[in-house]
Design brief:
The complex is a heterotrimer of chains A (311), B (331) and C (405).
Chain A lengths: L2 E2 L2 E2 H32 L6 H16 L1 H8 L13 H22 L9 H23 L15 E3 L4 E3 H23 L1 H11 L1 H6 L4 H23 L11 H14 L4 H21 L7 H12 L10
Chain B lengths: L6 H4 L7 E2 L2 E2 H16 L9 H23 L8 H18 L3 H23 L4 H21 L16 E2 L3 E2 L3 H23 L2 H11 L1 H6 L4 H27 L9 H14 L6 H15 L6 H16 L3 H10 L4
Antiparallel strand pairs in B: 1-2, 3-4
Helix pairs in contact in B: 3-7, 3-10, 3-11, 3-12, 4-5, 4-10, 5-6, 5-10, 7-10, 8-10, 11-12, 11-14
Chain C lengths: L1 H16 L4 H7 E8 L10 H15 L5 E8 L4 H13 L5 E4 L3 H14 L2 E4 L16 E3 L4 H14 L4 E7 L2 H16 L3 E8 L8 H10 L3 E5 L2 H13 L2 H4 L1 E4 L4 H7 L1 H4 L3 E4 L7 H11 L9 H20 L7 H10 L2 E3 L3 E5 L5 E2 L2 E6 L12 E7 L1 H4 L14
Parallel strand pairs in C: 1-2, 1-3, 3-4, 4-5, 6-7, 6-8, 8-9
Antiparallel strand pairs in C: 10-14, 11-12, 12-13, 14-15
Classes of the chains: A mainly alpha (311), B mainly alpha (331), C alpha/beta (405).
Chain lengths: 311, 331, 405
C-alpha cells in the first residue's frame, strides 16, 4: 500500500471521492443561487429553506397519510397516491418551483429596483418564516426517509466501499448542472435571458415577455434547490434546520466562483467539495473553516471571484 | 454599496438652531431619549432594569454598526465578532484578573478595535457585497477560534462573571446601580458617534458614501478614512459587548455567532439606517420581541421573519427614517 | 384540563374577594416556570412536552389547598435571553421553581441567577456535569442525565457485552470532547481499547462519510458517536448507508426517544443508547405515560420530561410539608428535598445527593428491530441497568463546594 503525506493512498482516493459527492450538493445549490443572482440581481437567502422544503415535500409525497392524520385523523387517501422517490424527484421540484413562482410574483418582484441589501434581508425573513412554520408543523427532530431499494447497497471499488446512492447523487448532479449550463449558454431561450439581464427594456421591445421570463428563472433556481433537497433526503436528516447549515457555505461558493457566473459556481462547488474532503483527511477540525479561508484569499487576489468579470 | 436610505442627510436644511452640534429636532429627540432612560425603570412604568440594560447594550451595538452602514455605506456582515470578542475579554479579565468594571469594559473595546484593525486592513479595499462577504468570512473564522480556544469555555461560555465595583468603590450588584453605569456608557458613546458624524471627518465619510471616486479625486485618501471609521465602529461594538457581559455575568458563543451579526442588521434596518436615533429604536423593538415573544415558543422565528419582510416591503426607511421623511427632519 | 379550570375559578374568586391584597394573593400561589428551547433544534426533546409533564405533576399533587401555576418561556438557546427571563420571573412574576433549561451555556447561566435570588432550580435538560460539580449551588438539583452517567452506562456496559474495541466520531467542542474522554476512561478500565477517533467541526458538518469510512477502516467493533441532535441522526443514517451497521455496533452517547422516532426504526435498529427513563418500563411508568398522553396523545415522555415531572412533584410535596411560606428560602427547600426521598411513578424512589444530583438508575437500551416493534414508540430493549449508586460520578470527584470532606 502506498502513502501520500503519510496517508494511505486508497484512503485518500476514497476521501477525494466523498468530497466530490459533497461538492455535488454545493454545485446544485450554488448553481440555483448564481442563476437567480445573475438574472434577477437578488441574493436569495431563502435558498436553504427552499432546499429543506424540497426534502419535506418529498417526504409528504411519500407518506401522505401520516401528515394528513396530524391535521385530522379522518383525512386519509388511498395508498396508490403515495409517491416514492423517483416520482418525487420530478414532482417535488415542480411543487416547490411553483411556490417560488408565487413568491416572485407577489413579493420578490417588488425589489428589483432596490439595493442588494434589501433583497438579502427580505429573503432572510422569508427563510425564517418558512423554517419556523416547518418547525411548527413537523417538529425539529426530523422525518425518516429511506434510500430507494434500487439504489440501496454498495459497490466495492477496490479502494473503498461506495454506496450506490452516492454514486447516483454525483451522476444526477452533473447531468442537471450541465443541462442548466447548456440551456443558458447555448439555447435561444438562454440568449434572451442573458440579453434581458443586460438591457431589459430593449429585449422587451423585441416582443419578449421579460417579467414572465424572470419569474420562470426564479422558479427554475428554486426548483434546482428543491431537487437537491430530494437528493439529500435519504442521506441527511430531513429536519427544518437542514438548509440553514448549508446556506452560508453555499454563499461562499457563489462568491468564490464569481457572483452570477454559472460555470464558476459549478466548478467551484465541486472544487470546494474536494478541498473540504482533503482537509478532513489532514486536519478535520478545520474542514468547516477552510472554505472561508479560501474565500478571503480568492477575494484578495481576484476581487470578482474566480470566474467573475471585473466590474 | 450605496444604501440610499437617507438622502436627507446629504441635503439637510440649514440649521436654524443648534446646541453642541445638535439641531433643534435632534435636541428634542435627545431630551426625549434621556427622559425615557431616566423614567422607564421608575414607577409607574417600572420596566425591568435588566431588560432595559440589554436594550441599551444592543442599541449601542446597533449605533456602532450604523456608523458604518449609514454614514460610510459599508455593510459589515460580521460585526458580532467585535461585539462577542469584547464580551469575552471583558468577562475574562473581570473574572480572572479581578480588574474593575470600567477597565474591563475598556479592554473589551480595545479588543474590538484591535480585531477591527486586522479585519479592516484585509477587507477595506473591497466594495459592496465583496466587503460584506469578507467580513462574514473573517467573522466565521473568529467564531471557530472562539469555539476552540480554551479561554472562552467552549459552548459553556464564561459564567459567573462578577459585576465588581466601579473604580473599586461603588458596588454594582444592585440592578439600579448597574443601570446607571450602563446608561452613562451608552450616552457617552452615543454622543461620541454623533460628534463623529457631524465633524469634518464625518462629512468626508458621507462624501465617500455618496461618491467615492469623487472623494478620491478631491484628494482624500478614502481607504484611510474608511479604516478609521471601521476601527471606531468596532471599538464601540467591543464596548457594547463588554458592558453586556457584565450586566448578565456571562459571555458565550451566541454573541460571536452569525445570527448576532444578522440581528444587528435587523435593528439598524428596523429603526432606520443613516439616522441617529434609528438604531436605538430598532434595538428596543428586536430585544423587546425576543423578550415578550418568549412565551409563545415556536412563533418567535416566524414573527421575526414576518417583521423582516413587512419592513422591507413597507417601511424601507425604518421607523425613524419614515418619521424623518414625513416631517422633513433628520433625527 | 380539569386542573386548569379549577385554577382559573380559584384565581377569579381570589381576585373578586381580595382585590387590594394582590401581593398577598400572589404570595400564596406557587409558580413553576418551565424554560427550554421552544423554537430551535431541541424543541422536540423539551418544549411543550416538559410543560405537559409539569402539568401532570401538578395534577398528581392534587392538593386543592395550594394553588399552583405553570408558566413557560422559550430561551431560544441564548444565554442572555435565559438570564433575562429567569431574573424577570423571580423578581417580577414570583416564580419559585425553574425546571428543564437545556443547552449547557443557558443551564449554567440560569444556575447562577437562581442561586443569587435564592429560589429552586431543577435542571433536567442540560448535559454538563458541572451543575453538580464545580458550579454546584445549594439551590440546584440536576435530574435525569449528565455526560458522566451517559459515558459510564454506554461505555462500561457495552464493553462488558463484548464491544471491546471502539472508534469515536466526536463533535469538536467541550460537550463532545468530554463525552469522548469520559467514555474512553470507562472503555479502557473495563479492558477495552480505543482504536482511533475523528474530531469534526461543530456546528456546520452535515456529511460524516469521511469519518465513517475511517471508522470502518480501523476495524473497531463499536462506533461511538459523541455528538447530539441532528448530527447524531445524520451520522446514524449515513452509517447505515455505508454498511457500517453490518459489522459494527453503533453507540449513540446522547440520544432521546424522540430522535429515534424521527430517524425511523429502519435506520435506527440495533443502535445502543442510554436513558434514565423509558415510558414502557413497568406498570408505574405506563400509568404516568397514560396521564401524560391525556393532553398529548401522539407523544411519549423521555427522560428530560420525566425528570421535570418527578422534580416538580417532589418540590410541591416538600413545600406542602414545610408550609408555603418556606418558598422564599430556596436553599432551605432544596435542603429538605435532599433529606426527603422522592416517590413517584416515573422514577420510583429517588434520593438526592449532597451536591444536588438526583440518583436515578441508568439504562442501556438497544433499539428494536423493525420486526420486533409492535408499533410507533415501541422502540427499546433493555440491555443493562447501572444501579443509582454506581451510575454517577463519585461525590468526592466532582469538586462541589457543598461536599464536606
Amino acid at each position: 500500500m502506498f502513502t501520500i503525506f503519510g496517508v494511505p493512498g486508497p484512503l485518500l482516493f476514497g476521501q477525494l471521492l466523498l468530497g466530490l459527492i459533497n461538492g455535488a450538493f454545493y454545485a446544485l445549490l450554488s448553481l440555483g443561487l448564481a442563476v437567480i443572482f445573475g438574472m434577477l440581481n437578488i441574493i436569495n437567502f431563502a435558498h436553504g429553506a427552499l432546499f429543506m422544503l424540497g426534502a419535506f415535500v418529498a417526504w409528504m409525497l411519500l407518506t401522505p397519510n401520516t401528515w394528513l392524520a396530524m391535521i385530522n385523523p379522518a383525512y386519509q387517501v388511498p395508498d396508490w397516491l403515495s409517491l416514492g422517490y423517483w416520482p418525487a424527484l420530478i414532482v417535488a421540484p415542480l411543487i416547490v418551483g411553483a411556490f417560488g413562482l408565487l413568491l416572485e410574483r407577489t413579493i420578490i418582484s417588488r425589489l428589483y429596483k432596490l439595493d442588494h441589501l434589501y433583497g438579502l434581508l427580505l429573503t432572510f425573513g422569508l427563510a425564517l418564516i418558512i423554517e419556523g412554520l416547518a418547525r411548527n408543523a413537523f417538529g425539529s427532530s426530523g422525518m425518516p426517509y429511506r434510500i430507494p431499494p434500487e439504489l440501496s447497497g454498495a459497490t466495492d471499488l477496490g479502494f473503498m466501499f461506495m454506496p450506490n446512492y452516492r454514486g447516483w447523487v454525483v451522476v444526477a448532479a452533473v447531468i442537471v448542472c450541465l443541462a442548466t449550463w447548456l440551456i443558458i449558454e447555448k439555447t435561444q431561450l438562454g440568449a434572451r435571458l442573458r440579453a434581458a439581464t443586460e438591457n431589459a427594456p430593449l429585449v422587451q421591445a423585441f416582443g419578449v415577455n421579460v417579467p414572465r421570463m424572470v419569474s420562470l428563472t426564479y422558479a427554475g433556481g428554486i426548483a434546482l434547490a428543491a431537487f437537491a433537497g430530494v437528493l439529500a433526503a435519504p442521506i441527511y436528516s430531513v429536519n427544518p434546520n437542514m438548509g440553514s447549515s448549508f446556506i452560508i457555505t453555499v454563499f461562499a461558493v457563489v462568491v468564490i466562483g464569481g457572483m452570477g457566473s454559472i460555470l464558476g459556481s459549478i466548478v467551484t462547488g465541486f472544487g470546494l467539495g474536494i478541498v473540504e474532503g482533503l482537509t478532513k483527511v489532514f486536519y478535520p477540525q478545520a474542514s468547516a473553516t477552510v472554505i472561508f479561508v479560501v474565500m478571503v484569499v480568492v477575494l484578495l487576489v481576484r476581487p470578482a471571484g474566480l470566474f467573475g468579470k471585473a466590474a | 454599496m450605496s444604501v440610499s436610505a437617507s438622502p436627507l442627510l446629504a441635503a439637510r436644511p440649514a440649521r436654524r438652531f443648534s446646541v453642541a452640534g445638535f439641531s433643534s429636532s435632534q435636541a428634542i429627540g435627545l431630551l426625549c431619549m434621556l427622559g425615557l432612560i431616566v423614567l422607564l425603570p421608575l414607577w409607574p412604568f417600572s420596566i425591568y432594569p435588566v431588560f432595559l440594560m440589554k436594550v441599551l447594550c444592543f442599541a449601542l451595538f446597533a449605533c456602532a454598526f450604523n456608523l458604518l452602514i449609514g454614514f460610510v455605506g459599508l455593510l459589515s456582515f460580521g460585526h458580532a465578532a467585535f461585539f462577542g470578542m469584547g464580551a469575552y475579554v471583558t468577562a475574562w479579565t473581570a473574572k480572572n484578573w479581578g480588574v474593575t468594571p470600567e477597565i474591563a469594559i475598556l479592554l473589551g473595546g480595545a479588543t474590538g478595535a484591535g480585531l477591527g484593525l486586522v479585519f479592516g486592513l484585509i477587507a477595506i479595499r473591497r466594495q459592496g457585497l465583496y466587503f460584506a462577504m469578507i467580513t462574514l468570512a473573517l467573522a466565521q473564522m473568529n467564531y471557530f477560534f472562539c469555539l476552540q480556544a480554551p479561554f472562552t469555555g467552549g459552548e459553556d461560555g464564561i459564567q459567573q462573571v462578577p459585576r465588581g465595583a466601579l473604580f473599586g468603590v461603588f458596588s454594582l450588584r444592585d440592578d439600579f446601580a448597574m443601570y446607571a453605569v450602563v446608561a452613562v456608557i451608552f450616552l457617552a458613546c452615543f454622543l461620541f458617534i454623533h460628534r463623529i458624524v457631524y465633524s469634518p471627518f464625518g462629512q468626508v465619510l458621507k462624501a465617500i458614501r455618496e461618491n467615492e471616486p469623487r472623494a478620491i479625486s478631491l484628494g482624500y485618501r478614502t481607504d484611510d478614512y474608511k479604516l478609521i471609521a471601521f476601527v471606531l465602529s468596532t471599538f464601540i461594538a467591543g464596548i457594547a459587548g463588554g458592558t453586556k457581559s457584565l450586566v448578565f455575568g456571562i459571555a458565550t458563543l451566541t454573541d460571536v455567532h452569525f445570527a448576532a451579526s444578522g440581528e444587528v442588521v435587523l435593528m439598524a434596518l428596523l429603526g432606520g439606517m443613516g439616522t441617529i436615533f434609528g438604531p436605538v429604536v430598532g434595538a428596543a423593538i428586536v430585544v423587546g420581541m425576543q423578550n415578550y415573544l418568549a412565551r409563545f415558543g415556536a412563533w418567535v422565528t416566524v414573527t421575526q421573519g414576518v417583521i423582516f419582510v413587512l419592513c422591507v416591503l413597507a417601511f424601507r426607511r425604518g421607523v425613524i427614517g419614515e418619521i424623518d421623511n414625513k416631517f422633513k427632519l433628520s433625527l | 384540563m380539569q386542573i386548569t379550570r379549577r385554577g382559573l375559578i380559584g384565581s377569579a374568586a381570589l381576585a373578586a374577594t381580595a382585590m387590594p391584597g394582590r401581593a398577598r394573593a400572589q404570595a400564596s400561589v406557587i409558580k413553576i416556570g418551565v424554560m427550554n428551547d421552544g423554537s430551535g433544534p431541541y424543541r422536540d426533546i423539551g418544549g411543550q412536552l416538559s410543560v405537559n409533564a409539569v402539568r401532570v405533576a401538578v395534577q398528581d399533587f392534587g392538593d386543592p389547598g395550594l394553588q399552583v401555576e405553570v408558566v413557560y418561556a422559550d430561551h431560544q438557546n441564548k444565554p442572555d435571553v435565559g438570564v433575562g427571563i429567569a431574573r424577570q420571573w423571580i423578581d417580577r412574576d414570583g416564580v419559585d421553581l425553574i425546571v428543564d433549561v437545556p443547552t449547557s451555556s443557558v443551564g449554567l447561566a440560569v444556575n447562577s441567577v437562581v442561586r443569587e435570588k435564592n429560589r429552586v432550580y431543577i435542571n433536567t435538560g442540560a448535559a454538563t456535569a458541572d451543575l453538580t460539580g464545580s458550579a454546584c449551588t445549594p439551590n440546584t438539583i440536576h435530574w435525569a442525565y449528565d455526560t458522566y452517567m451517559l459515558a459510564k452506562s454506554t461505555g462500561g456496559a457495552m464493553v462488558k457485552a463484548g464491544g471491546d474495541t471502539w472508534y469515536f466520531v466526536t463533535a469538536d467542542y467541550v460537550f463532545g470532547q468530554q463525552l469522548q474522554r469520559d467514555t474512553t476512561a470507562f472503555v479502557t478500565s473495563n479492558g477495552g481499547k480505543v482504536l482511533g477517533s475523528s474530531l469534526y467541526p461543530f456546528p456546520g458538518t452535515t456529511d460524516f462519510s469521511s469519518f465513517l469510512v475511517s471508522a470502518q477502516a480501523s476495524g473497531a467493533k463499536v462506533l461511538g458517536l459523541a455528538n447530539a441532535g441532528a448530527d447524531t441522526v445524520n451520522s446514524i443514517k449515513q452509517a447505515a448507508e455505508f454498511g457500517l451497521t453490518r459489522n459494527m455496533k453503533v453507540a449513540a452517547l446522547l440520544m432521546f426517544l424522540g430522535d429515534v422516532h424521527g430517524l425511523g426504526l429502519e435506520a435506527a435498529q440495533g443502535l445502543f443508547l442510554t436513558e434514565s427513563f423509558y415510558w414502557d418500563m413497568n406498570d408505574r411508568t405506563r400509568a404516568f405515560t397514560e396521564r401524560f398522553r391525556k393532553l398529548m396523545p401522539n407523544q411519549r415522555p423521555n427522560m428530560t420530561n420525566a425528570g421535570c415531572y418527578s422534580g416538580a412533584l417532589h418540590f410541591l410535596r416538600v413545600l406542602k410539608d414545610m408550609g408555603v411560606a418556606a418558598k422564599s428560602d430556596g436553599a432551605a427547600v432544596v435542603a429538605r428535598m435532599k433529606a426527603m426521598p422522592a416517590e413517584d411513578d416515573a422514577y420510583g424512589t429517588t434520593t438526592i445527593r449532597q451536591d444536588g444530583l438526583a440518583l436515578v438508575p441508568a439504562y442501556l437500551f438497544q433499539v428494536k428491530k423493525t420486526s420486533e416493534s409492535k408499533g410507533p414508540w415501541d422502540y427499546y430493549n433493555l440491555i443493562a441497568t447501572t444501579p443509582p449508586d454506581q451510575a454517577w460520578r463519585p461525590l468526592s470527584e466532582g469538586g462541589c463546594s457543598l461536599v464536606r470532606a
